[in-house]
User: Fold these one by one.
Assistant:
Number 1:
Amino acid sequence: MENVNVIADSLNEKFGGRIGVSEDGKSLLVKAEEIIPVLTELKENLTFSFLADLTAVDYPDNFTVVYHLMRLTDARIIRVKVILDKENPHIDSAVTLWHAANVMERETFDLMGIIFDGHPDLKRILCPDDFEGHPLRKDFKVEAASRQ
Amino acid sequence: MAITNQEGSFRTQEFVLNMGPQHPSTHGVYRAILTMDGEYVVDVENVIGYLHRGMEKLAEDRTYTQFIPYTDRMDYLAGMLNNWGYVMTIEKALGLTIPERAEYIRVIVGELQRIASHLVMVSSFALDLNGFTPWMYAFYDRERILDLFEMICGSRLTTSFMRVGGVPNDIPEGFLPKLEEFMKDFPKRLDDFDNLVTGNEIFMGRTVGIAPIDAETALNYGLSGANLRASGVKFDLRKVRPYSIYDRFDFEVPVGTRGDNFDRYNMRMLEMRQSLRIIRQAVDNLPEGEIMAKVPKVIKIPAGDTYCHIEGAKGLLGFYLVSDGGTKPYRLHLHGPSFVNLGIFPYMAKGTILQDAVASLASIDIVLGEVDR
């Protein structure tokens, strides 16, 4: 199995060393402004053509958007992470590459509050339209619903 | 007999038709806002979330073991497979190997569950095409599978059968004879079902060539499981990257050619026979031995990320686990195949008549518990 470093190296031929590898050596680290070119390269030329999953994690000092791309011939998965600013989490939408990203980005927006620029219809999907807050953020506290 | 939209025929003003959330053909609590031109669907907007229970948030406040019962309630027609995917994720994160016998038991119940789930799909698909009888046939067989589940874990639907490290109960007395009986009868029952439905002229007239999806579109929309295979993409995780012990079994992966409603239905019919083959081999080679690996009472997962997915009943069922080294997940993302599969419904429904759109929805086999989580 080829490891993440090899894929990072082949990406870096095109992106001039700006693609990093996470500390545990399992994920690619990409800058937010370069995400679409990198995903395009992974999809078109490096055979990771299937968007298996798209979500985000709320860490104490940042939001991380996590993509899992899959190669169909051997089901190998590559994880791509983008670290976003806590105050203003914006990233370009991947709907132009995969229609599948449409619902997954809406879900991530709804539950985590990440704004996907260029998404055709970015609105809540699981929570009601008038819901306040983004439930999967760590500062959102769960409490019992008030009885009426 | 194909009903076609005649060019330049009588057109009416577009109107909005609301379907659901409480409607039998929506397979749960799901609402479709349809823009209609007479009988023809012009546009669809999916409205989901009526069954959203915030499982991902709840997981952050539960220990790893405590979350197992929640997984049953995702795709509630395939509890065993959800359990399996979840515990496999934890086992992968821990680097745990589980005993052989437990793997075999998992395969047996997992494939039985796949059959049970597919039986619901084929029967409700026929039901949405106005055929009530197939429902009675398929549910008779599904009952027998649920009876087997009741024997092995006391529960029929929300099984919570699997544990991190193996399975909690060994196969009880009387289970294998009953399973043998089922395996003896089921191929004949499938033949009956094929005779009754698959080759039925009215059924074929209503399904062949309706809502075709080509391979490229299917991949672009992220379809997986039988829906993807119906479009001619031979991708089954059990074959491409065998998890558990699937590399030991001899089975085939059926693929479709047209990707229409009929192919999607037929994939399930063919896959049930393959599942039966797998169960046959698993029962014949069932080894003796332990059913639980040594797992500490309190499970702590080293800090880091794990992504694990299995070939669920509806497609690729994924779990993305982020641990901070504690006893609870820092973040657990549940990737439900139905959620993604539903995204293609507007594409399928556009340009078809309303009654075919209802059938198209049934053909992608969604379960709202998994869509909304």
Number 2:
Amino acid sequence: MPEKKIRVLIAKPGLDGHDRGAKVIARALRDAGMEVIYTGLRQTPEMIASAAIQEDVDVIGLSILSGAHNTICPQLMAMLHEKGMDDVTVLVGGIIPEADIPALKKSGIAEIFLPGTSTQDIIDFIHRKVPQH
Amino acid sequence: MSDEAKAFTQTVPPAETAASSRQPSAKEQAWEKNTLQPTLKKNPERQKEFTTISGHPIRRLYTPADLPDWDAERDLGFPGEPPYTRGIHSSMHRTRLWTMRQFAGFGTAEDTNQRFRYLLAQGQTGLSTAFDLPTLMGYDSDHPLSEGEVGKCGVAISSLADMEVLFDQIPLANVTTSMTINSPAAVIWAMYLAVAEKQGADWKKLSGTLQNDILKEYIAQKEYIYPPEPSMRLVIDTFEFGVKHTPKFNPISISGYHIREAGSTAIQELAFTLRDGLEYVEWGMRRGLDVDEFVPQLSFFFNAHSDFFEEIAKYRAARRIWHKAMVDRYKSKNPRSWALRFHTQTAGCSLTAQQPYNNVVRTAIQALAAVLGGTQSLHTNSLDEAWALPTEFAATIALRTQQIIAHETGVTNTVDPLGGSYFLESLTNEVERGAWDYIEKIDAMGGMVAAIERSYPQREIAEASYRYQRELDKKEKIMVGVNDFVSQEKSLDVLQIDESVAHRQAERLSKLRAERSQAEVDRRLAALRKAAQGTDNLMPLIFDAVKSYATLGEICDAMKEVFGIYEEVAIT
């Protein structure tokens, strides 16, 4: 039986339009054999949670550069919890001050990838976290 | 178009492509045989291929054989004269240094007003305003979508009341102000003009720059509100208004900066920016404006990345292309339309979060390239900007970097000191040729708006950006402190913007809404809505609405009702 591909939703929440990182990651994960859905820009936590359910994803990757992470991440985590999606692995990539990392992890974010992370590190992390079905 | 020119786009040609047509002199051939080859046998070169950060191939040595058809008087010329390779002024930085213009903005208008006054006191010579994301997207600070974003990436400006505070005690008649705002540019400009009017400043003497470059928003930065057609109408409205009322103000800064930050190559940055410029010229002419009346006020904005010579070649090629296009395509008769004036900002995307003090060095080298490339104004990034907006400490070092280049290095003593270098002249030719190839391709698509609708520039940039990431991942390109020379360092103290900014803004807005005449606001918004359905210039109506203290969000919403909103096709 063929292995089921890992499904990843790459999302760009907030008002920021700088999508270079989101697009590079989407492409790298796809090249690594994952099924990647990119939401496009300016997604609210609600839109992201709905897309995650609809697409039945294993992983959500959020790209946030604007400093709005402390508002957006807890909102999304609460929404996922409400919808019974606690088993989805949520990753954040972007500009996140180190001081904010503990609180974000406590809210359920599995990992935070800072600028300069190689795409292979992210791929490896997802493989460890989401064993193929 | 020659096959050689084609080879420079999209795919990077092999390093020896250019060599095939080279005819080295007998002496050069002898050097290669007798000196070079024996050395290479003993000590091979470090890499098989040497390329710029954009992937452009670079030869081992440049000699007269690389410039076979080059004519110094024709291709280099003299500064202040066509083709402007050496700069747009005859004595360049000997007469006047570039404007040191540090981009600043955070928190509330009060916070940023204080930073502006600090920077002016430190010897900065022009202001540059960064707005927060809600302002850039046309939302008031108290809009639900603004939550978490107020004052974070720039200053929050929701109405004329905020603008009055932003420029409090700063005489707009005497400083030049740049404002980085695009989709809502007409509204923010109207607020600025209203403040100037209140200060008693003569509009005819006001000088500064509005970014107002919507095309690069669709291409790269993605801060758009309306679809391309009505957006372009608003841009041309500002041109037309400016010609009449503010002849010294630049109504646009046609920007390659964001295109490069989105991951383009140097040639793509140059080509897409200049093709955007041509698009604005054509739309202006279609409005009935005289080329030589509005083009002199169009200004440009480029990135200064780390590949030193490639960047200098880019600025020189930019001036040559613009001159040629103005004369050949639009039959311009006014030398002021031919001379491409530009601002430069060092590359934010080159800064590393790791070992952040290294960013001072990167920025200094990039700034030096901009100066040697003949920039008119310059922003140097601060060492902490991979993490946050700069602290005052970091912003001061960035400004001092420019002052050191200006006053200690001696590079301003002579015009275009690198002119005539075999390497730089060859590279300038190649970058120019590569850019023309893209420009002609976009012409064939029917222009830049048509190309954007086909996602052409977006796709080219995404390809280049992914290629560079793969090169980093494979260590074919090195970023010091990131994929090599890694060490642990303690983290920086960075500027924090807390949510109290949003609360203060919300309070100020509810007070404003309670105190202004709502009937007057409604009347002026209705007039704007009605005019938006027709073809009149909207600037006077936006100005009226602003003066009644209608908010940015209200004015943008009124136009949204008529123009609709733009949604891009997301490509990955």
Number 3:
Amino acid sequence: MAERYSSFRSGSTTWLLQRLTAAFLVVVLAFHFFNLHFVTHAYEIEFAGSQARMETLGYYVTMVLFLVTATFHGVNGVYNALVNQGIDGKAKRAAQIVLGVAGILLVVQGVRVANALAGF
Amino acid sequence: MSTQTPESETETETEPEAEAEPPATKSHQQRRMDDKRARAEARDEAAAQAATEFEGETVELKVFRYDPEVEGKEEPRFDSFTVPFEKGMTVLDALIFARDEYDSSLTFRHSCRQAVCGSDAFFVNGRQRLGCQTQMGDLEWPVRVEPLPHQDVVKDLVVEMDHFYDQMESVQPFFDPDELPDGELEEQRQDRENRENIKLSTRCIWCGACMSSCNIAAGDNQYLGPAAINAAYRFYMDEREGEQKRQERLEIIEQEHGVWRCQTQFSCTEVCPKDIPLTEHIQELKREAVKENLKFW
Amino acid sequence: MSESYDRGLVEDFGRWTEFSAGMWAWVFHKFTGWVLVGYLFTHISVLSTSLQGAQAYNNTLSGLEGLALVRILEVGLLAVAVFHILNGIRLLFVDLGVGLEAQDKSFYASLVLTGVIVVASVPTFLAGAF
């Protein structure tokens, strides 16, 4: 198939990524909820406890992955909802830019938070 | 009444004179004419009565009316028709009765009345159905008939189908093999298994019910729609199709407003009058597109 | 052809009794999705107080957790997240082509299961809130 050089124009990549991140998030979000509402209760959470969790490398890596996948899944979901609604032309371009920037900012800020808690 | 023969009309006018004669002096022909007249009068009376009352069950049919050229119908309204119910009658039968007996301006598309032409898709009691395929007895009464949703209404129950046809044409629903078999009379063969796979997808009658039921098609005007994607499926999965055409077809349906817009709402599958598993076919094409693209890496 | 009439969207919420299971699933999945995205941004903002040190972080969190309204909203968050996860699993099966015949039943099942999980979690979530 030498005629086709980029698979990026097809929506199949984002479609697949949305499903892959979904599968990952099902597990991790459930775990996150369980950990922070049942194992530790929400009202018991304070800096020292959060720090203790974040200092373990495995937990830290999971949380950062969680952040990235959730941001992608959520922002992509919102974008698709807008396309289904019929967004077009300039509005579509604007949505792409706003959503893209918001997503990047969220990930950056989230990593800063993770680092603050982990003591990096 | 148009069904009556002209003779009886002139005969009723001469009625008073004929009755005064004693029966014994009547000729055979005269007696025959009298009987004929009496029968005609009885028929007239019965017909006049039938027009205002019906024997047996009747059903109320509420139909969406709209006609930009007629005062009173410029804003849509619902007209009620009382239709005598007969076991086995369809929504189409009821509409035809209403048109013939009450209002000949009632407009709707219909043709084969056996669910193969796809002309009479309506929105009946809140669901897309074919008029000829829907039994009045299966519905809740009164029966509400509206034009298909999400499409512009031209008049009464007639909707614009151009957009639907455009989407169908855009997937290029025709064969284009890479090469024809040798020999002039050689057939392009397809094995049984392959035929079974695509059998259901060949049943589409282009009625438009599926596209009308899809919320994504309603919001996104560029979405190809279930029928068009199913048409693409029918050819894509057919082993007689040429590889070149197959790739082209895939590129068409894997655009942003192609298969990816489907959110698996399943409404199309539910309303399809030919029981085609549309969502399943769309899903198969999505998986196919992913597999084809993954091969690149 | 002279002007045709645009009837607009027929399925406005006035016709909700006519919605099918698949349509409800789509509507709810979208709604819960928007809520979760909104929450994600809020959540990171709240956690950003950690950048100002332990004191700010602790005060913010305990302050929020002290409000009964917040505790109730957390139950709502649970409901939204659980539904989105369960229906999401249903959608993953649909995408794999498994169990398409039972797609409406699986939607009802995910609704019921969401209800069960939320009700079972209420005691834990609202402990000490009032």
Number 4:
Amino acid sequence: MASASLWRYAARRVLLALPALAGVVVVTFVITRMLPGDPALYYAGQVDSFASVDEIRHRMGLDRPLPLQFVAYVDDLAHGDLGQSLSTGQPVGRELIQRLPASFELMASALSLALLIAVPLGVMAATRPGSWIDHACRLIGTAGVSLPTFFTGLLLIYVFYYVAGWAPAPVGRFPSFMRPPPSITGMILIDSLLAGDLDKFQAALGQIALPALTMALFALAPLTRMTRAAMLGVLSSDFVRQARANGAPRLHLLFVTALRNGLLPVVTTLGMIASSMLGANVLVERVFAWPGVGSYALDAMVSLDYAPLQGFVLVMSVVYVLINLGIDILYGVIDPRVRFEA
Amino acid sequence: MSAGDMSGALLEITDLSLEFRGRGGTVRALEAVSLSVRAGEMLGLVGESGSGKSVTAYALLRIMDAAAHVTAGQAWFRGTDLLGCDAAAMRGVRGRGIAMIFQNPRAALNPVVPVGRQIMVALRHAGVAGGARAAALALMDRVHIADAARRFEALPLELSGGLCQRIMIALALAARPALLIADEPTTGLDVTTQAVIMDLIAETAREAGMATLLITHDLALAGEQCDRIAVMHAGHVVEIAATAAILEQPRHPYTRRLLASMPQGKMALTELRPIPGGLPDLRASLPPCRYAARCERHAADCDAGPLPRLWQDAHFIACRHP
Amino acid sequence: MSEAVARRSPLRHLLQENKLTGVAVGLFGLLVLVALLAPSLVPHDPLATNAAHSVEPPSAQFWFGTDEVGRDVFSRTMVATQLDLGIALSAVAISFAIGSVLGAACGFFGGWLDRITARLVDTLMAFPLFLLAMAIISVLGNSTANVVYATALVNLPFYIRMARAEAAKLRGSGYIEAARLAGMGPAQLLTAHVYPNILPPIMVQISLNLGWAILNAAGLSFIGLGVRPPVAEWGIMVADGASLIVSGAWWVSLFPGVALMLTVLCFNLIGDGLRDVLDPRRVT
């Protein structure tokens, strides 16, 4: 009975995500059409020096009424056409897809690292109130949200690369003197493991360590704080007391009964963290010269080439809507109570 | 201070004193509490809120608040020193020797797990291997849950208060305890359901040969079901006796006023007779008899020496001028 | 007993209970002082370049060292206080002013206003906020004013939702019904009764929000979408020093970075302290 309604719940969430997607497309269209200056003039100056500006404007469809332009825009999107990058001459869509695995690998590593540290730390702080772990937890929670991500990244480079020499030069995903493994998933860490090449795996790990750590530190604070608070709440709840009185073994009580309920607010927090992480990703990619979608957009921007930036914002916002959808569904898996909502 | 013919008692509490230490001061919640429960009997522990009845039970299972400290006394259960044994021994007692159910049944169940599965988990922890689902369904039948197969997958929020209480009782029975502590088991329920649940508790206790410690503020409720009643006031046990004796020949002034304050049939507001005053502040320094300030039989020598605690023909009383 | 003390003097109670918050308040005072006085008191002109003293470590002449074009890092860091604080305060003030009023009206009156605003807020919140700010500034162009507007816009949903939730709670309350029956019009109800009552919980959030706003503005400036050079702003300064870090010139980025961190920490601590006082159940 309860599992059937999970499908219905998931379907409901998907339906609810559609207006959000529509909103993202509309807003990015509105922003795209508000380019500074006249793009036709810009094209005229850069590319077709002999064609008249009016011709170019006509070719770009900029002289048609706005609603028609919007239809054309959506049509382009449906075919994966996000425009052309003026600085590289390549379609924006293709370049974004090429660079997406790099950003994904970075964010996934950072999030995993953050969760691996934050959840046990928060649980330990909740079970040992007043201990040094508890104080460390609260310190991380407060100080962590005050750190500017780009600054932490630079500090880590200075300490671990320049001073200690442990980390490799921040030149990107892979050291320049080595060739990356054959690309299967697009994620160097996984690809090097699949190719059985431990040297390349180690090199890639070294390159990703500092940027992932920078992003993880950024997510660590809210996650630790929320885990600790949620666990404190759950551990003092009636049903935990009842289970304890019934003789439940300590580990089961903590990691099955309490944690499952305690993770609920943490999962909700993940949505908020995803939003900040997508923003922090841009900063970290800049600091560490990481060849992901963020640095692609920023590099293009420097040459006043705006199509990549707008394509980037559109794609990442769609990704964000999908992430939120995933989190909603995950929540429904953990907490069957939400499936009852209308 | 031991009971006269209480040899072979299942649970024996002797001179238990407990205090809460906090920033606002030290609260002497229990002082020299002694009582025992015989195998198979139902003992009612009756008192106002704040009298210490729940605290006593929590102390037995060592699920008290972190601020609570036992300062004196012992509690023995089937050869185990409840207050002094190590954590592993304590976990062996919880559920298997002594089980406890609380007020607010829905809040006492894991909100995200179907109730049937919660019973299965309790059975697994009690050592019931294989076929746990069948055993869980059998347990649900035993507590008279109709349509058990369908209710098995239900979440606590889908069930009524009465059903949740039955599930709690099923969870408590899973490991076949010798003693069930029921802390205000019917307080959150409507009157009809109250009667039904109390009958269920009494019935399962009888069938399993299980003793019951019924904690309640409702003397009438205790009077209906219990074999013996212990009355508490402000952290002291003031009277223990067979139910009939308590109801017909109460000896302690507090018990008498409790009985007198119970509404009989339809009464006008002016006819109700509450007990004057309130519980004393347990942080302040207190006289030997904590009821003295509210007592109509209070005399000067009540405050002089220690509170006399006497057994007379299986009737315990802590009073200088009963 | 301690509650009575709190009611008598919340500020003193706040400072006594939480020494850390007291330090933060002191630090805030210091920041305001620096913001106001720095431009007149700094030893060197924050915009003056000096090719002869390029990338010099801290010394007696240049207390925080110099950057690539020879500007004094100390003077620039101090002067930037005014700009960064100003940007954060303006952005938060705008989003608070518009958001709280709009949210209160939506929460209290409901109806079409609520439905349309909810749609707008949902659409805004469907974006990762930093990216939305980036897109907006790429359209409007780099300038201090645009950073303020972009930050204020992405911050708006936060206040709208909070005000709306608080105002909705008040909808059925007795004294508001009484005022309405006495003939108060909707605008009057809103200003006299609803709005003042939703303010306390929102005020707690303002301090925390200020910290976020500064980080947002500095982040935008770091990637070149914020304030325009050669203006002294902490984010831009960290960006200037970013390429120098790998060769060991730590001072160009460190000092503005630390200033940024301390300011945000200060706002966060004050916010936490306020929360402990106004809502002691939720101890952080």
